[in-house]
Amino acid sequence: SAIYELSCEAYKHLGKTSNYYWIDPDGSGTLGPLKVYCNMTEDKVWTTVYHDLQMQTSVGGSSVEKLSVLQLNYSATMDQISAITSSAEYCEQFISYSCKMSRLLNTPEGNPYTWWVGKANEKHYYWGGSGPGIQKCACGIERNCTDPKYYCNCDADYKQWRKDSGMLSYKEHLPVSQVVVGDLDRPGSEAKVSVGPVRCQGDRNYWNAASFVTSSSYLHFSTFQGETSADISFYFKTSASDGVFLENLGNTDFIKLELKSATEVSFSFDVGNGPVEIVVRSPNPLNDDQWHRVNAERNVKQASLQVDQLPLQVRKAPTEGHTRLELYSQLYVGAAGGQRGFLGCIRSLRMNGVTLDLEERAKVTPGVKPGCSGHCTSYGMYCANGGKCVEKYNGYSCDCSKTAYDGPFCIKDVGAFFEEGMWLRYNFHSPGTSVKDLVSRTLLSSADPEITAPDLSLNKEELSFSFSTTKSPCVLLYVSSYTPDFMAVLVNPNGNLQIRYNLGGTKEPYNIDIDHRNMANGQPHTVNVTRNGRDIVLQLDHYPPTSYSLPATSDIQFNSPKALFLGKVIEIGKIDQDIYKYSTPGFTGCLSRVQFNQIAPLKAALRPTNASSHVHIQGELVESNCGASPLTIPPMSAATDPWHLDSASADFPYNGQAIGDGVNRNSAIIGGVIAVVIFTILCTLVFLIRYMFRHKGTYHTNEAKGAESAESADAAIMNNDPNFTETIDESKKEWLI
């Protein structure tokens, strides 16, 4: 039985994040498993298959041969890739031709010099950004070729470098197995070819489902051809305690799968030696309206049945007797002759590696509806950190808008690197909002909407965030108010954490000091503070939570909260002396997943949300995950990874950020040591230089420039590749000549 999931989509619905996975696109069919890269984005799942052709492969130059053939060897067989492309909703592959006196498609009228070979060894004469039957490049379709007489930039035959590139997205033709380059036999002719990996998105088979709403309704398909081997797998979801999943009859032979009771699934068949039945009994009810997976196999040697992760039940076939399953009737799904049918949902029904299109058939069958609802009951637990599960027609997604996190499961930290002097202010009341609107918008409290804005007050707060820094003292977070009340999280001069509350009624603010732990050690730390009335619970990193209590005289209302500050406190009016002192020159380091009650100020600053109008930033906020939950991708061995040199920049999500943060943390430590040395030796010089040549520093990540505007990771890399910018430089030179 299959050890691997059928697709990246299936791995996502086990709560898996982006990584390399083995998938088995035809179950236990003949294809066998293959290793792909699954990129789980917020709303889509991308499956990527790599090949061994280097980017910017040079052809021509010295060679005199008429045709140059570039062969692409994939990390999967053509049949395996076809299984992925045929079940995908959309596939694409980037292709690029950089040329110097080397024509491409020979437009407008001529025979193409260069073509590519796709699935089934077919030649194709269209290029990236264009479509089948259209002998044009992207610039010909967009009408912006360098020379409008031609439909490709390269066809103008310039002596300078030019380029034609774009996505091939007609999935029936993919993947590219060869590129044949022709126009290279003149002196000075040169070309470079790049082909990206095949990327496919969506899995039509995984969500192909039907809902059976009456017990007499069923779908029928042509007779199941499973004479010597049968491999049947599907998911079901029901609240009924019994029903027939599917049945196919012969004269006396038959095959049948049914839910016998709330805890029993049965697989029965007869190949002429009398009926055989295998039953899997579940310790928990199977009619709990959750998805359950059934896998039934039968061959000449044995038969087996598995439900979810329960133990596999196997029955050996008799050594003598009949072995062929001879069926004549139609295959019935969801009921059987005269027996009580199945009520509920069946999805992703595969028989001998072929997915039956339940959805199409359900559209024309009374009593059966296409698709299925209620995926959140099964998959909602994957939406973490307070993310809400949202039902979709084919699956679900996680809504992270009320959280400080991001990503498909709300587990990706949203954080930023702060340089000295930078700050962020989140105003709880946006200018010019009505009070009614204000209370719902700020999400600060469910206080009576009739009170005026500054009178809003809190009896309880919940605050959580992560930080890393090597500088102390500093103010990590400060919540100001229209009254003397405030709350602050500080790192004191010894590098110890302090939580400070001033709610009135006490001479001095109430402090919680966490001594004996240096927090300014450059490592990521997590802080969780919950206050309910007088009781405060603090959890730091993975230490057990500790409880504290405000003094008996202290007020327990946080009156009229005004704004939340990160990095530095810039507030008018009287400010606590320590806070003023610690806040200069400001916090340097990383802050992430900051959440105060329902407010996520950093996320509001970095992601456009309806709360973004509340945020004011001084300085340039650079996004970073602060090493709080770095994405770890196990390296492929050079043998299995054909892109072994380029793969770092190929298609890995967040790769730049992960590297950027690593560099930042190490350099912070090394920089600290060096700074001390320089400081002691050249103290005054440094002082002078700081004031004479003071300029705003910037924090660099290794993210490809242009990544923001690029359609995909590949496109960002293309935009960032130095060879691709040659075209621009050349055109500048032309004007200078």
TrEMBL record:
The chain crosses the membrane at residues 668-689. It is a single-pass type I membrane protein. SUPFAM superfamilies: Concanavalin A-like lectins/glucanases, Fibrinogen C-terminal domain-like. Its main location: membrane. Residues 373-411 form the EGF-like domain. Residues 1-51 form the Fibrinogen C-terminal domain. InterPro entries: ConA-like_dom_sf, EGF, Fibrinogen-like_C, Fibrinogen_a/b/g_C_dom, Laminin_G, Neurexin-like, Neurexin-related_CASP. Gene3D superfamilies: 2.60.120.1000, 2.60.120.200, Laminin. Residues 208-372, 440-626 form the Laminin G domain. This is CNTP2 protein. It comes from Edolisoma coerulescens. The gene is Cntnap2_1.
